[in-house]
Amino acid sequence: MTDTRTVDELFAVDTLLSAEEIALRDSVRGFAAKRFRPHIADWFEAGELPVRELATELGGMGLLGMHLDGYGCAGAGAVAYGLACQELEAVDSGIRSLVSVQGSLAMFAIHHWGSEEQKQQYLPAMAAGEVFGCFGLTEPDFGSDPGGMRTFARRDGDDWVISGTKMWITNGSVADIAVIWTQTDDKVAGFIVPTDAPGFTATDVPAKMSLRASVTSELVLDEVRVPESARLPGARGLRGPLTCLNEARFGIIFGAIGAARDCLETAVDYARTREVFDKPLGAYQLTQAKLADMAVELGKAQLLAVHLGRQKEAGEVAPAQVSLGKLNSCRESIAIARECRTILGANGITLAYPVIRHANNLESVLTYEGTSEVHQLMIGQALTGENAFR
């Protein structure tokens, strides 16, 4: 038997990374392997995740809002942040989602659109995992078309009164604050709403078959009153929430690749040790063809992710490029997960191996933060100049 190489080694990915980025990646990989991997199958099966307990640990590692500057945040580069997302999602998409929603949605919204007082009040505690947030944009009838949202904030003296329903909200029932996006008499606005405010309720979505190791909630706001100081002053119109979504999508470009890598590594290990007709499964041409094809797609996705990260660090990445990366990573990762399942045979459908769990999770990753169809249309618009959304 000849020496083996990983996909990263075949594509020489580390030559594109700095020593600091490699050290951070390896640190997060070790932390995730020790803290999350021994428990993740049980959390997934139970449909539970100890979010508040994990939040302080993730905060202690500097992973919450790590790509933001100041206010207790690490100020890491885009590639470093992406690599951290990748290592977290290599364990489970639910873990990466927890970090993405806290840092790239709730914290980013305050960091990018909030007042200085709001930043000082919330961001240091959120970076430490002491205050947890969620991001309320999607509604039961409005996901891909957020402009149709029905949640409304009306002005009442010095206050705002918010009514509406948000759906599929990660961390919703465990959050201390919710960044809620609403219609107003003027334009779409964002508000920081304490989840203990009268009229605010959060209920977990039951019977999920995907992202089971993640808290997913419905938020109901019934005449919730907040002061003017709760409004994000820099956000006017849909550009506010859409900028946040673009930030979260970037983390998924890297994250989904982590899930696919874990599936492929599991399939390679299984193929090398599982004997079929008196020789290892990995010694058959059909198996090697599957593994080779998956390695090529995984490596290409990794190279694209790093390239887009460098573009983002230079301030030159466009929303259509983020769509390109998100579409490619998610589409190829779920295909890899499904193909790896075939190599594991019946063993591939059990939680003794991570493959079916990743495949189920990626069904959600494929559609949240913009479905594949939405990203196809964004790329198509960039190519043709024509808006085909309507």
Please tell me about this protein's structure.
The protein has twelve helices and eleven strands. With 390 residues, it is α+β, with helices and mostly antiparallel strands. A four-stranded antiparallel sheet has the order 4-5-9-8, covered by helices on one side. A three-stranded mixed sheet has the order 3-6-7. It is globular and about 80 Å long. The longest helix has 35 residues, at 239-273. The protein has helices at residues 7-10, 19-35, 37-46, 51-60, 78-91, 93-113, 116-127, 239-273, 285-313, 319-344, 355-365, 372-384; strands spanning 69-70, 73-74, 133-136, 152-156, 159-170, 177-182, 189-194, 200-204, 216-227, 275-276, 279-280. It has three domains: 7-127, Orthogonal Bundle (Butyryl-Coa Dehydrogenase, subunit A, domain 1), CATH 1.10.540; 133-230, Butyryl-CoA Dehydrogenase, subunit A, domain 2 (Beta Barrel); 239-384, Butyryl-CoA Dehydrogenase, subunit A, domain 3, CATH 1.20.140.10. The chain is 52% helix and 15% strand.
